[in-house]
Amino acid sequence: MKLLILDAGHCLSLALAREANRRSDTELVIVEGLELEPGMLEEVAPQALVIPPLARPISAAPAEVTEHARAVESCMEACQAAGVPLVWCVSDQLYEDGFAEPIDEHVIPRPRDESLRRLIATGDRIRAEHPHHLIVRLGPLFALEGSNAWLNELLDTLVTGGELRGEADVTCCPTSADAVAMAMLGMLQQQHCGADAWGSYHLAGTEPVSVYTFVSMVRTQLATRLEGRGEKVELGGVKALRHHHDQPLRRVLNCRRVLDVFGVHQKPWRLELGLMLDAWCQANQPDEEVAKQR
């Protein structure tokens, strides 16, 4: 199976590359940016075109959101002409106001924000005009490298003594970019083998948690690891924010359909976070520790 991946520096693109390198059944062609050169789909002839998500669209500049939507629609038109399936990943923030219960796939976001509505219009076009599509809604992605990786930003702030801030009244499901990459390649392999299960799917980590609790857990787990190897580092603190005083916001994705259709299980974010912190600590050992291991 051959896939064409856009936005080479995105944390999800990097995770897809790592996962594909572990497999012998997947070839990736990864390009910079979200623009397709004329004739690229015909030349590469991929089984699908994959577009990583615009992270944190709620806080992105309107021009950035509009440009992302325009680029996705341009890619859709190219996929239509070339007969190539389209995979578009989108942020759970499109569910601007959240829901009291876990959000099912058939629930199309209806945000009030004008920029977010522009992304919804793009999704409506894809559903109406290109049947061979996957719209994959994701929880907040975290990874150690790449753009929009979140975790690397948190770690950099902590080790330099900066203060982290996280909403205590916003509940979500943090999602490992590595886990998404593994799930998506599995889904696309099944599609390549004739599953023909197109449509919208949710992928997120298990255990809903407030943003503040997640950020605090990152700090606690990092401090435990550094203390365990004898390092004394003054990590930055964590401050709780509250923006939804009347009604805490829950943005929790129900991922049952991806399990029922493709057999994909959600990955526990605590386990994924632990693995990433272990890898970060291994890569950031003091010089004397590295010398001892040699």
From TrEMBL:
Per the record, the domain of life is Bacteria
One GO biological-process annotation of the entry reads:
dTDP-rhamnose biosynthetic process
Xref: Gene3D superfamilies: NAD(P)-binding Rossmann-like Domain, UDP-galactose 4-epimerase, domain 1
RmlD-like substrate binding domain: residues covered: 69-279
Report which residue ranges the record marks as coiled coil: none
Q: Pfam families in the record, alphabetically?
A: RmlD_sub_bind
Q: Which InterPro entries match?
A: NAD(P)-bd_dom_sf (IPR036291), RmlD-like-bd (IPR029903)
Protein's name according to its UniProt entry: dTDP-4-dehydrorhamnose reductase
Source organism per UniProt: Halomonas urumqiensis
